[in-house]
Design goal:
Structural class: alpha/beta
Low-confidence stretches: 498-521
Radius of gyration: 27 Å
Number of strands: 15
Number of helices: 18
Strand content: 5-15%
Length: 521
Amino acid sequence: MKNDDFALTLLSAFELLFAGLLLALVITVIVLYIIDVNQSSHTIRRNYPVIGRFRYLFEHLGEFFRQYFFAMDREEMPFNRAERSWAYRAAKNVDANIAFGSTRDLSPTGSVMFLNSAFPTLEQDAALPSEVTIGPFCRQPYSTSSIFNISGMSFGALSRPAVRALSAGAAKAGCWINTGEGGLSPYHLEGGGDVVFQIGTAKYGVRDAEGHLSDERLKAIAAHDNVRMIELKLSQGAKPGKGGILPGEKVNAEIAEIRGITVGHPSISPNGHPDVRSVDELLDMLEHIREVTGKPVGFKAVIGDKDWLRELVHNIKERGIDRAPDFITIDSCDGGTGAAPQPLMDSVGLPLKESLPWVSDLLTQAGLKSRIKIIASGKLITPSKVAWALACGADFTVSARGFMFALGCIQAMQCHKNTCPTGITTHNPKLQKGLDPTNKATRVAHYQRNMTNGVGLIAHACGVTEPRQLRRSHVHVVAASGLSVPLSELHPEPITLIDDQARPEEPERQINSTQEELINE
């Protein structure tokens, strides 16, 4: 009897609960109906009360259904499933081999293929990437052999555990980490590896009360042995012509102190350096920073207009190569960011496939290629893309989103909302709790090492002993005809000029002429 009474009581409770939920649902529908028919902001909701709300739900869910159920391995943007899967496997250091055949379509125009040698480099002859020195005229030059490094991501755009993991991972892998424009945090230094300090348009971390560059703060930053180079950011791939954007909800007390701004207020950087309005002022600024810090100094820019670069080369040759930038970081128009206006992200700047060979040719023709090192940035998250960049003239490559995948990023596209489900780009303690810096640091190191190994595999297949020996002659690109053509024909290797009066625009004219001939074929 007791069991029967308990069952009846439980059944009655469920009946009451169901009735309560049903009543709450009816009341909710009535309230939503009244709200929808009386509002004037959304036509769909006014014409189709309550039901019209499902449109917005399905629109939001569609992004995730496409990613996991409907899109093919090579279809997604900005990174497809095949690219992300390689990055995940490399970070976890699991078997990266695949079976049956590649899912990559080799027919689209622009597809890149490497030319294997009949006599590939034997394992006993293979070598690690060679060491390169940046800033030979500095008091403290920087030498490194790392071909793949961590691009600029600020503390603020990234969470504390994410920066700690990247810092420790960079030290394990022997690559550098760029601070991004948000200043130098203790978490960048915590890992003990090499750091590149980036100065953005707002001068965060090295600004005085008026927002101008402070030599004293700059000296304090450079006094850290870990800080090996200084990078002046002119523009960024996803938002050329726009400064950094950090929403107010991500500006906590610690970030505000490091940047020198107000808690809770959006951190909006100027769209350019107020004190750098010409090529001469840029060279003056770089020389000033180098003199104050004693360390290599260069700049980061998205290439669009090219006249200023021709002027830059001309002015360097007049001033002397000792006063040249120590490096140039070239960012692609398809680079990433935590937040940017869509018109800039979609439609401004040149992609790396055009800008990298052009800048390399410009410097080579002017006799400056060995003096000014080139760092390539922009969607370089797999070995084939890094190998392509090295073949096109890059001395180093950097990636931000690739290392975010190593941290566990799932491409949720919520970097600007402080709701990142993986804890990478949020300052919500509950979401950060899932990101273990110790575990992720190991994955960061694995990703960097497996990237280097992967680029080495391509180099050895092409018959060279190490990645920095890759040249354009090792690469073919699919043309509009559907057949591949040598990259060295699309972008012929220029001859270094001795005549200082020779015009630096010649490489571009030669490249465009060759491209036109190939298109006409």
